Amino acid sequence: MSVSISQLSSTHLSAGYPGRTILQDLSLDLPAGQISALIGANGSGKSTLLKTLAGLLPVQGGSICLNGKDISRLSTRDLARQLALLPQDSSSPEGLCVRELVSLGRFPYRQRFGGLSADDQAVINRSLQQTGLLDLAQTDLAELSGGQRQRAWIAMALAQQTGLLFLDEPTTYLDIAHQLEVLQLLRQLNQASGITIVMVLHDLNQAVQFSDYLIALKSGRIYDSGSSKQLLTPDLVQAVFGVAAVILPHPVTGVPVCLPYAPKPAAVAGSGPGTA
Which of 234, 239, 162, 232 lies closest to 204 in space, CA to CA? Predict the structure, then answer.
């Protein structure tokens, strides 16, 4: 199933929390139909940026444009039909089965007093199939492994039928096998449907391997952005994370791999090459 390609950009964006600005003068254009990874040290503004772009945090300055419209002018329902967000800590009411969770993704399309339509059921079935969960549709969420549970949340987001999918640290609390399972699923969904995916990742090597585009944040600003396979350099790792590292090609895939070896004060002061 393909989706409409979504265009999202911000211009001179400032945002944060009451009495505290986190993002400052941040302008970006998300590559449509690709996977982008947000990287940066703790506190650099990654989750804040994701929540602000998704309309969960108010804009303090500048603007965010989704498919030609300022998101401040979109209703919650209209926004939910164009953009889905999976937060870092997803929790659901006790006693839900997989299918019931996925059906929540149809909320933006349902009438106030109506039940699930035949079209809704078809979308739910397709979302379960895409995430490999058809056989587990009636299984209680509490009985799933961490990787299966994360796939169920992704299926719920797919049921929203949006052109944009945001994920805040989708591999948190998962072992390495389940991390790869989730990231490979996201890559497959992107390639099959053209959905634009933006995710926050702490593992630099996974960010490079499973994304097309990197956005490196430092102190609430974009330090640099560009092709995942080209952007990761020792200078960037030092400037953004304050760590000395070497970058080598993976012996099997050839993808750049970061090998940090010592903390080191960042040599580059200021906001970096990505700001104007």
Answer: 232
Tens digits of residue pLDDT in 214-226: 999 999 999 999 9
> Phi/psi at 29 (nearest 5 deg)?
-125, 115
Greatest pairwise CA separation for the chain in angstroms? 60
Q: What is the pLDDT of residues 45-59, one digit of tens each?
A: 999 999 999 999 999
Q: Which two tokens stand for residue 79?
A: 């926004």
Helix or strand (DSSP H, E) at 151: helix 146-158
Q: Which residue has tokens 């990654």?
A: 46
**How many whole angstroms separate alpha carbon 27 and alpha carbon 222?**
8
Confidence of residue 60 (pLDDT cuts 50, 70, 90): very high
Measured CA distances, 171 to 62, 86, 181, 199, 250 (Å): 31, 12, 9, 10, 21
- The distance in angstroms from the start CA to the end CA of the chain is 39
**Token duo for residue 172:** 């948190």
The per-residue pLDDT for 250 is: 96
Supply the DSSP symbol for 164.
E
Contact, 153 vs 169, CB < 8 A?
Answer: no
Ranges for all domains in the chain classified under CATH 3.40.50.300: 1-82+162-229
1-82+162-229 topology per CATH: Rossmann fold (3.40.50)
Kindly report the pTM of this predicted structure: 0.90
